[in-house]
Design brief:
293 residues, Rossmann fold, six-stranded parallel sheet, three-stranded parallel sheet, globular
C-alpha cells in the first residue's frame, strides 16, 4: 500500500514555522495585516473567507475582509485594490473567487501589487517562475512541490507528468519541476492516449477537476501521486437519499495499492495550500521592506 502523505500534519508543521516568523516580523516591524476582498454574496466564497480569517488570527496575522455589494462594478473592485496597494499597513491582498458574472478576473489579479500578491496569481509572479525567481509563487504549486519533496522521491532526473495545465496550478507546477531538473510532460484536454503518458511517470500530479478520472490503469507501480482535485459528488446513502462526498481527480481506492505515495482528498494538498498562504504572507511582508526578489 502507498504511503499516505498527510497534508494536515504537514500543514501543522509549516504553520508552526510560519508563526515564529510572523512573531519575529511583528516584534521588529509592527502588525502583519492581510486584506481579503469579497465581491457579492457567494456563500462558498464567504465561508472560505471566514475560515481564512480564523487561521490568520491563530497565526498572529490581522485579517480584514473588505466586502463589495452585488451591484458593484469592475471599476469599484479596481479602486479597492489600488487603495490596498497604496496602504503600507497592508502586507498581503487576497481576491476571493469566484467573482460575479461580468467581472474580468485576470484584470483584477493583474492589478494586485506583485509584492502583496500572496496567492501568487499576478502575471508578473507567474512569469518570474520561468526564471525560478518569483516574488511570490502560487500557493497550490508550492504546496504540491512541498508534498513531492516530503514523499522522499528524487526529483532530479525523474519522469514527471502533470495532468491539467491551468495558469495558476498546472503550468506553475510544471515549471517548478522543470527547474528542479525533472523531465516533465504536460497533459491537457487535447492529449491523446493519456494512460500512455501517465504510466511512465515517477511523479504524477493531477489538477483537472474531474472526479476519479485517474485510475489504476494510469499509474506506474511505486509512483508518487499528488491529487490537487477537489470535487463534490453525490452518492446514495443507506436510506436511498443522496449523500455528498468530497473526492479528488484520482480514484484513491484503486490507486493506493499501486502507488508508492499518494495524497488523500480531503486532507492532502488543500491544508498545505492554506499553510502556504500564511507563509507567502510573511514572505511578502519581509520582501516589501526592501522590494527584493
Amino acid at each position: 500500500m502507498a504511503h499516505i502523505l498527510d497534508g494536515n500534519a504537514i500543514a501543522s508543521e509549516i504553520r508552526n514555522q510560519v508563526s515564529a516568523r510572523i512573531a519575529d516580523f511583528t516584534l521588529r516591524h509592527g502588525e502583519l495585516r492581510l486584506a481579503a476582498v469579497l465581491v457579492g454574496a457567494d456563500p462558498a466564497a464567504r465561508l472560505y473567507a471566514e475560515s481564512q480569517r480564523m487561521r490568520c488570527l491563530r497565526a498572529g496575522v490581522k485579517h480584514d475582509l473588505i466586502e463589495l455589494p452585488d451591484g458593484a462594478a469592475q471599476a469599484d473592485l479596481l479602486a479597492v485594490i489600488d487603495a490596498l496597494n497604496a496602504d503600507p499597513a497592508v502586507k498581503g491582498i487576497v481576491l476571493q473567487l469566484p467573482l460575479p458574472n461580468g467581472f474580468d478576473t485576470a484584470a483584477a489579479q493583474y492589478r494586485i501589487d506583485p509584492y502583496k500578491d500572496v496567492e501568487g496569481v499576478n502575471p508578473a509572479n507567474i512569469g518570474l517562475l520561468f526564471y525560478d525567481v518569483p516574488i511570490i509563487a502560487p500557493c497550490t504549486a508550492l504546496a504540491t512541490l512541498e508534498l513531492i519533496e516530503r514523499s522522499g522521491v528524487g526529483v532530479r532526473g525523474a519522469n514527471a507528468v502533470v495532468v491539467g495545465q491551468s495558469r495558476i496550478v498546472g503550468r506553475p507546477i510544471s515549471m517548478f519541476l522543470t527547474t528542479r531538473m525533472a523531465t516533465v510532460t504536460g497533459c491537457h484536454i487535447a492529449t491523446r492516449d493519456l494512460p500512455a503518458h501517465t504510466r511512465g511517470a515517477d511523479i504524477l500530479v493531477v489538477a483537472v477537476g474531474q472526479p476519479r478520472m485517474i485510475g489504476a490503469e494510469h499509474v506506474k507501480p511505486g509512483a508518487v501521486v499528488i491529487d490537487v482535485g477537489i470535487n463534490r459528488v453525490a452518492q446514495p446513502g443507506p436510506d436511498g437519499q443522496a449523500r455528498w462526498r468530497t473526492v479528488g481527480d484520482v480514484d484513491f481506492e484503486a490507486v493506493e495499492p499501486i502507488a508508492g505515495a499518494i495524497t488523500p482528498v480531503p486532507g492532502g494538498v488543500g491544508p498545505v495550500t492554506v499553510a502556504m498562504l500564511l507563509r507567502n504572507t510573511v514572505e511578502a511582508a519581509f520582501k516589501q521592506l526592501h522590494r527584493t526578489l
